[in-house]
Amino acid sequence: MRRVTTILLLLSTTLAACASTKHRHDDAAARLHAADPDVAAARRLGAACDGGDFSACDALAIRHLDGRGVPASPAQARKLLQRACDGGDDDGCLHLAMLLERGVDRPADPDRARHLYRRLCDGGNATACNNLAVLTTREGGDESTAMDLYQTGCDQGDAIACFNLGFRHEGGSLPDKPTAAKNYARACELGYAEGCYYLGLMYRYGDGVTRDRPRALDLYEKACSGGYGRACDSLGTIYQNGSDVPADLRRATAYYRRACQQGLPRGCTNLGIVHEQKTDFPDGESPAALYRRSCHTGDAKGCSRLGVLFLYGRSGADKNPDKAADMFRTACARGFGAGCANLGVMYEDGMGVDKDAARAAENYGKACRLQEYKGCHNLGVMQAEGKGITADPGAAADNFMVACEGGMAHSCSYLGARWAKIPEKRKFGLELLQRGCDEGDPWGCKRLADLTGS
User: Fold this and answer.
1) Rounded CA gap, 59 and 325, in Å?
2) CA-CA distance, 74 to 231, in Å (whole number)?
3) Residue pLDDT, tens place only, 41-90
4) Which of 50, 138, 308, 425 sits in a 20 to 30 Å window from 100, CA-based?
5) Largest pairwise CA distance in the chain
6) DSSP 382-425
7) What pLDDT, in 10s, does the model give residues 390-440?
8) Closest CA to 84 of 117, 53, 105, 47
9) 19's torsion region: left (phi>0), alpha (psi -120 to 50) or beta?
10) How far apart are CA 42 and CA 55, in angstroms?
């Protein structure tokens, strides 16, 4: 359910194109360029590097990767990092190893990266120990070697090594939850926000530690304040649903906003859902704008929600069934079941797309496989009634039962009503109708009353 998080220095691979055109205002442009603080800083670093300050060579290399004050050039960055490393600057060696491992400007060279990491780790560089452990794990190396490296990095104060060690203790082949908690706690103490959040998860659910929900919330808050958007989003959900705390939509909204601002796409989606209940929103926070942002950054649910807004023309989106279908298609392609089910409705009814029963059934089936039970129900209706596809009562019954077991009360009722008409299935049909009624389906209650006279 969780994934290992390994944080290496983010080395930008985007190449910036620098072009100039001769104009009579060249001199003025040059003066403005020289006044740019990034350019001035890069020039100072260049002079210091030329003068033998190898830490300046390292810093200038990072600027060449980011394109700050100098042209973006991974090749130039590599040369500068090699110079810094040859001059004895450990940061230069570490960053060079990262560049070699990732193969930013040429094919990756994990052997050279491994050699540099090992030398640095042996010399007491905790980050190098963590990175070597990550590389060892990624290449299918010896697990005990990787664990020893994580432990060394953690003992030397690398927060990410402590987190990775905790993660492997929590979910490895021989889980040791108490030790995992200790390592998450150490990562949290060293300022790694994700460690605080994972420790909070353990305390919230009593997973390997004594359950302590107030402490869990404190840890979530610490992680959120430390910039970990997932913690902010979790706090938003807790306060929206009133889980462990009194429900407080205002605080939930504030936490969702922080999650969104910290770059968590799901936080933007949840903020949009909260805003859908309103008629006015802060600038840039219409549900449509938030869903566009979350969809663009990878949240399939945001795409599906945006599709609904386009379908009905509300909350900052113009009515546009074509765009709605596109959004549902995107959500479905990313594995979001509701998007597939909604796309199925579009094909079944011919909204924004040509009417196509076969494609409707195909999308309902995909939604059902993704445990979006509305898709199971809708496919069952098409199969039971032969709506545009060949009737298949057996397959229909199977899909209704899947939906019924998945919590779709109307599916229980629908199948129950059909079976109640068949003498040998009447008893079970009435039981399904009763279940649908008990689970809140008014149609099931009415059909049950009609059939039993009660």
Assistant:
1) 48
2) 34
3) 999 999 999 999 999 999 999 999 999 999 999 999 999 999 999 999 99
4) 50
5) 97
6) HHHHTSSS---HHHHHHHHHHHHHTT-HHHHHHHHHHHTTSGGG
7) 999 999 999 999 999 999 999 999 999 999 999 999 999 999 999 999 999
8) 53
9) beta
10) 13
